[in-house]
Known about the structure:
Strand order of the largest sheet: 3-4-2-5-1-6-7-8
Distance between the termini: 60 Å
Structural class: alpha/beta
Helix content: 55-70%
Low-confidence stretches: 1-14, 101-105, 366-383, 386-392, 500-510, 588-606
Number of strands: 8
Oligomer: single chain
Largest sheet: 8 strands, mixed
Radius of gyration: 40 Å
Number of helices: 21
Amino acid sequence: MSADAGAAPPPPPGTAGIGDTEAALSRLRGDLSGLSLPYALAGADTAARTARIVRDQLGDYVLPRLKAMDAPLLAVVGGSTGAGKSALVSSLVRRRVAVSSAIRPTTRRPLLLHATGDDAWFDGSRVLGSLAHVRVAEGAEPTAAGLHTPREVEVRSCSTLPAGLALLDAPDVDSVVDENRELSATLLAAADLWIFVTTASRYADAVVWEHLRAAAARDVVTAVVLDRVPAGADEAVGKDLRRRLDAAGLSSCPVFVIPETRLDPDGFLSDEYVAPLRHWLGALAVDAAARRDVARRTLTGALGSALAGMDGVLDAVRAQEAERGRLAYATATIHAEALDRVTQATEDGSMLRGEVLARWQELVGTGELLRGLESQVSRLRDRVTAAVLGRPAPAERVEEAIESSLTMLLVNEAQRARLETEQTWRRAGTAAYPLSCAISALPTVAERTQRAEQLVRDWQGDVLNLVRAEGADKRLTARLVSLGVNGTGVALMVVVFAHTGGLTGVEVGIAGGAAVVAQRLLEAVFGDQAMRDLARRSRLALNERVAAFLQEEQAVFTQALQAPSPRPEQLAEHLQEVTGAVGRLTGRTPDENPQAHPGRCGSRHP
């Protein structure tokens, strides 16, 4: 017995790897369904449109076709405005199924005709799942949809169509209605083969060749119907059309010529003109191998087209992530600079100007004390104590002055950071919606002022708690009683603002001297090392509260910066999975080109 006896037979050609490919494509389609490009960058609209087309193509055609390679072929009849697509469809099946009119656009709701008995393939959302399916009885009169293109498709059975073939009458590829053009592109992307209809007067239009070149790039089996050819012009027009098709890579594309002629009393083209096309389509429908070859070839081209289009989508998502990072970094930098300015203003002696300095002088009698700074520490403490005890609630006045000055500083710097961030985002011009969301979520001036006041009061409470904790030593209790916790706390606050950088002239002497008085006072109460530790911890507590205050303001902006979806790394990973799975699948796809075999597919050249 041979070594491989009893082994499972090899899978049919073109079916190996379908499960992996289907799973990978489903993940990619999920990415595209949730695509969000929130920043107004160049190329974002194009990428979003490409993503919609690829998403619809995966759901409408690729995934259903992967699951059912033997399903009926879907031939989409598309083409130029007024080319006679609807009349052609009705004439092919010899049933009045589509409206023909001089009003443009005529076809607003696409029509899908399938053979009787093929209903199961087209009911539900298996094919063209991005559109709502409207089932219409075979004998019902054709109707035109409303003025706006709905995302729906009319589905009818047709007893004159052969099993294995469906026709879809699509809106104009060059329609004046944007929705019609996009819907036409979606339907063409969902086709197994194209029947492209144009006229002798319109066949050279740029839009026509944009779509025909796309068909060549995707390797879609395509037939061209050249309609309304004037008598005697068929040879010249046909020769020029053939030359253009050859140049576009569609040298094997069959061309069917319909002369300028009147419709018969039933509204159909003469059967002698449409019979060759009907025969070509019928030959494909009855030949199961030919159907599979056409489906496999178009599927392979569709997968390649989808992957090629995704490069631009991935680039757009990466650009969105970069823009979000750039705006977030700019916002963080602006608020960090605001924090630096607050820190500098509370370290360089600036806080000891104005009202704070005046209230401190009232508390300690600075003018008198400055003249005795070299005296014994105990004498200094006695003088300060006398000053404290001799004035009504002097420490509270200093606290209030510090609260007022520090609150104003915080509010001004937060407002400045807000305006600078807003200006930066407006100059970028990419985040109008996130900016409007941030502005609406930011606190009002009154709310910001209230938060800043609470911050300062909480910090002052931190300082007083530090003084109480340090004074818990019984040896220090008497000193604290004589000076008061508030008086000692105020001195500690002044020491926190002790540096004199930024002060000039007389201010250096006054503010700097006031700070030295506070320092000597605390040294007298706690000792030099304890005083330094208290000042450091008070400064740290202030910095932490200020940083949190500004970070809350910054967070309102950064939280409004929506992340693109999917994340670039996720989309790149899924694309890599799809590329590998498609490679394994298409690597087993036969190279046979059904359109290059006239004996199988048929052709009729002018």
